[in-house]
Write a structure and sequence with these properties.
mainly alpha; three-stranded antiparallel beta sheet; two-stranded antiparallel sheet; 6% strand; globular; binds glycine
Length: 418
């Protein structure tokens, strides 16, 4: 410091003190968020450990009641309030096995491992199912999590075979995987939800070295980016294509309020889908798109203060409408991943995700009740009045995924483990 003018010495001292002050403040803010986040994780999984044994015995009771060997996995409630169980071909079949994997990952309890293996094994015949785009949901949530945690080579082959089946629904002329109906018959429908099924394809390329799955995934993501979004970055639920020319015929809705509205879960699928595509490709346009979707959701005038959306952002008369807790859980999980990639808005995304997870406590079932579901108040399909204000198995799945991601964030580990 010798020879340094007094005023400069003074300024350096102030600067050092200021730097120290900023560092201490940043540490305090970070540890407050960490402690807060850890509380959500511990509390959420403690609750789950009490609920899933209830669900296991309720599944057994429902099977005995229906006496149909095909009904195996929980989805929601029946009209009379019983547990609705579905066959492996239902799009929701992978979520309960996935929940069991997340509970095993958290507890390391061999009992949850054997339950996860048992429920996952039911889905194996689905690997040949070419009749659904939802194979990504079914197989990635069950066998995908199973492979991530066990590296069982049998799971690897099932994932690769499933990716082959899913790829059979891709038409290069349209540049997208067909969502509904048989190939070559009826409308060539692609829904925003389909972005989620790409995760299976990326994983299959990683496991097999066959890049064709990866290529299909990026072509589908690019076609959806081009045709599914409005200038405000909200998405249409459904785009119907002309299979002969690949041109767009119409942009409409199935589960939203109207053709021009923003169906809440659709926005969440898009957010999750493009965040995942950025993870897999590191193509910046997907990160930019995910950021735009996050901003549409978080700054939407239709979003309630507790960040748990109604089933559609544009539905009028919100007092009489049901929330969609599943959309909130999917959004929380996606934001925790996007938060680690976004230099500009990472903090905002993380704190929004933690706020959602904290607020979801008010939407939970009571311990021991509602057949072992974790979260109440989701909406499956409002226009046809199905699964309104109901528990839905995928809300529970993405809730546990988000808690797992938050735990990893708090431990300074990559939020998504592959
Ligand atoms: N993929 C169906 C749904 O989100 O309801």
């Amino acid at each position: 410091m010798q020879g340094t003018p007094v005023n400069l010495r003074y300024l350096k001292l102030v600067d050092m003190k200021h730097g120290l002050f900023l560092k201490i403040t940043a540490c305090l803010i970070f540890s407050a968020t960490t402690v807060f986040g850890q509380k959500q994780v511990t509390e959420g999984f403690n609750f789950t450990e009490k609920q899933l044994p209830v669900m296991l015995s309720e599944i057994n009771a429902a099977r005995a009641n229906y006496n149909n060997p095909k009904l195996l996995l929980p989805r929601t409630l029946t009209k009379s309030g019983g547990l609705s169980i579905v066959p492996v071909s239902d799009w929701c079949s992978g979520f309960f096995p996935g929940e069991l994997w997340y509970l095993f990952e958290y507890t390391k309890d061999p009992n949850w491992l054997s339950q996860a293996k048992k429920f996952t094994a039911y889905l194996e015949p689905e690997k040949f199912n070419k009749g659904t785009h939802d194979l990504g949901f079914e197989i990635y949530c069950s066998f995908g999590n199973g492979y991530r945690l066990t590296h069982d080579t049998a799971y690897k082959s099932i994932i690769i075979q499933s990716a082959r089946s899913l790829s059979s629904r891709f038409d290069p002329k349209v540049g997208a995987i067909k969502s509904w109906g048989k190939m070559g018959q009826g409308k060539y429908t692609v829904i925003i939800d389909n972005m989620m099924n790409l995760e299976l394809l990326f994983e299959a390329t990683r496991l097999s070295g066959d890049s064709s799955f990866y290529k299909i995934a990026i072509v589908h993501a690019n076609t959806t980016l081009k045709n599914h979004f409005r200038p405000d970055y909200s998405s249409y639920h459904v785009v119907n294509y002309d299979q002969a020319t690949g041109g767009v015929i119409e942009k409409v809705t199935a589960q939203g309020y109207n053709n021009e509205s923003a169906w809440a879960r659709g926005q969440a699928w898009g957010l999750y889908g493009y965040t995942m595509c950025y993870r897999e490709t590191k193509d910046n346009k997907y990160l930019v798109q995910a950021g735009h979707i996050a901003d549409f959701i978080l700054h939407n005038p239709g979003l309630p203060k507790d960040l748990i959306p109604y089933w559609d952002y544009n539905v009028p008369d919100k007092i009489n409408q049901s929330r969609d807790v599943s959309a909130a859980a999917i959004t929380a999980s996606a934001l925790l991943e996007l938060g680690t990639y976004s230099k500009k808005n990472g903090k905002e995304y993380n704190s929004a995700a933690i706020k959602i997870l904290d607020n979801l406590k008010s939407y939970r079932a009571k311990v021991g009740e509602t057949h072992g579901f974790l979260l109440l108040h989701s909406t499956g399909n409002a226009p046809i009045k199905v699964e309104i204000d109901a528990p839905l198995i995928y809300a529970d799945y993405y809730y546990l995924e988000a808690l797992t991601r938050l735990k990893r964030l708090n431990a300074h580990r990559p939020v998504v483990q592959q």
